[in-house]
Each structure stands twice: as C-alpha cells, then as structure tokens.
Design a protein that fits this description.
Low-confidence stretches: 1-15, 20-24, 401-409
CATH architecture of the largest domain: 2-Layer Sandwich
Oligomer: single chain
Helix content: 25-40%
Radius of gyration: 22 Å
Number of strands: 16
Distance between the termini: 40 Å
Largest sheet: 6 strands, mixed
Length: about 400
C-alpha cells in the first residue's frame, strides 16, 4: 500500500483552488490563504482587523477580500456599528464556497464524509467490517461516493476541492492482534490506494497517516489553535498521535512523526511493550469479550458505554497510567504547551480518561519537565475522516504556518 507523507498528496486534476494566476501572483495568493486562515480562526473579521493582524495595508486587504468574494469563498455579515465612524462589515467563510471529501481507512470500519468550507459535516457514510481486502474496501468507497454526492448539483460538485485519505501506515501489519484472513492483510502491502481512488473522480487525492489526520482536524476545527505546540493522542482501535509545532503540523520526513502508539511502555513484569498494547480500544474490546460482552453492541451507540461497567473502569485505569507515562516522555523531548487526548469514544469516557491521566501524573518525578496542561480533544470519532477532508483545505485554502499573524496566543 503506497503511502505519501502526511499533509501532502498527489493529484490528477485541479479542484477549485486559489491557484488562478502566474508566478507573479504568488505573494497575493499566499496573502489570500493568510486571510482565509485568519478568518477561520476568529470566525469573522472586518477588513480593518485583517489588516491589523496580518500587517498588510488596508488597500491590499480590500483587494484580497474583493477577490475572495468574487470566488465565493467569503460572505459579508451584518454591519456592526461602533461608537464612532462607519459601521464595520465583518466577513466570514462561505460554507458553500468549497467542499472536501474525507475517507477514513479503519481496521474495523470505514467512513466517508462530505465537509463544507467551515468544517461542517454535510453527509457521512459509515461502514463496519472485519479487516477487509482492498477489493471489498474499494466496493465500499465506490458505492459510498455515489450516495455521498447524490444530492449535489453540478455546480456544487465543481466546488469539491479534493479527496483526502486518512489511513494507518503499514495497514498490513498487526495481523496477530487484529485477526482475519492472512491474504487480506498481504493484499494491502503493494496496493496503490491513491491510484485506485484517483480513478473514481476528477479531484486531487491526498493521503495522510490516520492519527496525523485526526491531529490536523483538531488543529483546524477543534481546540488545537489555542496552543502554540502540542502532542496529540488519538485512541482508535490502536492508539496513534500527531505533533503540532509553532502552529503547524509536523509530519516528519516519512509522514509518520508523532507515531506515539509505538512508544515503549515498561510493564510491571516481563519485556517492555508498545503503548498501543495498553492504551488502545482493542485492549478494551478484548477485555469485554473476556467478560462475555459483545463490543459490536456498544461501538455504534455511545450511550450504551455506561453499561460496560467494571470492564470500562479497569481499562480506564491502565490506559490513564500508560498515557501519563507517554505524556511525561513526550514532554521530555519537546516542551509542548499541552497534551491533547481524543479518541473514538463518548465524551463522558474521554473526560474520565483525561481526568485519570492528570491524576496519574502525580506518581511521576516531573523535575526538569516544563509545566504543561492535558486537554480533552473536541471532535471524537469523526476526527480521522475530518482530518482526511482537511488535507484538501490545507492544500488549497490555508496556510500551514501562522508566523505572519500579528497576534499572541
């Protein structure tokens, strides 16, 4: 399964991007992305505030905003009157200015979502399965795309910026932990997922590690913009992670930076094991089966997680202990502002996990470790698919660095 670095991708056709002109327009195109990124962060801004925060002249901002209105990427809001002078006219992102498709490749389920420019999910298709062959997965993608886009007009289809794939790297590994057909696992090893999906539409296709994509979703649509730098843990079937430094995703040269699930975790007895063997939902599922519970009855319905009872409580204890160790290890490498923890779980379970992780830190010697906070993520189960969709928005409409913003955090 050929993989490209995170927050990058290949394409065979252009979507509705900002790349309108020649090289002489490069600065202006960057400034347009800068304005769009700034408005996304603040929700809405008048032109005077855009100029103040970016350092651009009022005339330059006016030209940029006029063009973005023409491109239907910005819309005017109701003027707001101040104490003196003319009313200020805020501008916000036009939800229908662009769309993006996100595809989550999971070990036990697949998701397809259609996202608008503001990050709202317009439609979602979820497909549970046991580890699929590439052929079965592509059947889901092909049929799912038809349903996902069925109600879009031709004009709306033209505004699809691209399709982003959020997939585990080396999907064929972990056969022993997941179980299933050996042939299905091996079939993914040399499968060109990007190439096959490119055949299904006229959109650029991007691909990222699934946990890195979830981290990108938290940065773009969640709480991530509140922090300058942070490590991000996402608890899926296996736990993974991502890293944000100076306000942008750090993918590393392989696209797999922040693969926090592979952190070695010292057991009480025996050899060290990876973090994913103690702080993943697969561990919870195995404990449920051992207690006579069927995990399939709980996954689709978050409210039912209350009924898992003591099994959930015991898993939370070991997961929190493992995460506290991992947080300390991460902070010993980079002085992050925060650690963000999210996962494919109900909000009340995530809150309990974060609280227990904070409590477990008291057992660690943190001398020499910079002060940091542990925060809840804000997206949950949809983070990976939304992160996949965000790849096209990053590629076409956003800056991936915030260094020119004249604001402090």
């Amino acid at each position: 399964m050929n993989m490209a670095p995170a927050i990058s991708g290949q394409s065979k056709a252009k979507g509705p991007t900002l790349a309108r002109g020649t090289s002489q327009n490069g600065v202006r195109l960057y400034n347009e992305r800068l304005v769009l990124s700034l408005i996304r962060r603040h929700g809405s801004l008048p032109k005077a505030e855009m100029a103040k925060l970016t350092g651009l002249s009022a005339q330059t901002v006016s030209v940029i905003v006029r063009q973005l209105e023409t491109d239907e990427l910005l819309i005017k809001e109701t003027p707001k009157r101040g104490k003196v002078g003319q009313p200020l006219v805020p501008f916000s992102l036009n939800p229908d200015g662009a769309y993006s498709i996100g595809l989550k490749v999971g070990r036990h389920s697949g998701d397809l979502i259609l996202l608008d420019l503001t990050g709202k999910i317009i439609r979602k298709i979820h497909q549970p399965y046991h580890f699929p062959s590439p052929a079965k997965f592509m059947a889901f993608v092909t049929g799912g795309l038809e349903k996902l886009l069925a109600d879009l007009s031709p004009g709306q289809r033209q505004r699809i910026a691209g399709l982003g794939i959020a997939s585990p790297f080396e999907l064929w590994n972990w056969e022993e932990e997941i179980g299933g057909s050996h042939d299905a696992f091996e079939a993914w090893r040399d499968y060109d997922l990007v190439g096959e999906i490119e055949k299904l539409g006229e959109w650029p296709v991007h691909i990222s590690n699934d946990a890195t994509a979830a981290c990108a979703a938290e940065l773009l649509f969640g709480k991530g913009h509140r922090f300058h730098s942070y490590a991000y843990f996402f608890l899926g079937y296996f736990i993974g992670g991502g890293i944000v430094i100076n306000g942008h995703i750090f993918p590393g040269h392989t696209g797999n930076a922040g693969a926090l699930g592979t952190l070695p975790f010292p057991p009480k007895n025996g050899r060290p094991q990876q973090l994913l063997h103690s702080a993943s939902l697969s561990v919870l599922e195995n404990r449920m089966r051992a207690a006579g519970l069927d995990p399939a009855e709980f996954t689709p319905t978050p409210e039912n997680w209350h009924d898992i009872g003591p099994v959930l409580d015991s898993w939370l204890a070991i997961a929190a202990e493992s995460l506290a160790y991992a947080c300390t290890a991460a902070m010993s490498v980079i002085d992050f502002d925060a650690i963000i923890i999210d996962g494919a779980m109900p909000a009340h379970v995530r809150a309990a996990l974060v609280e227990r992780t904070r409590a477990a830190l008291k057992y660690y010697d943190l001398r020499g470790v910079p002060a940091f906070s542990i925060a809840e993520g804000s997206i949950g189960s949809d983070a990976r698919a939304m992160g996949g969709a965000s790849l096209s928005l990053f590629a076409n409409y956003m800056t991936d660095r915030d260094v020119l913003f004249k604001e402090t955090r």
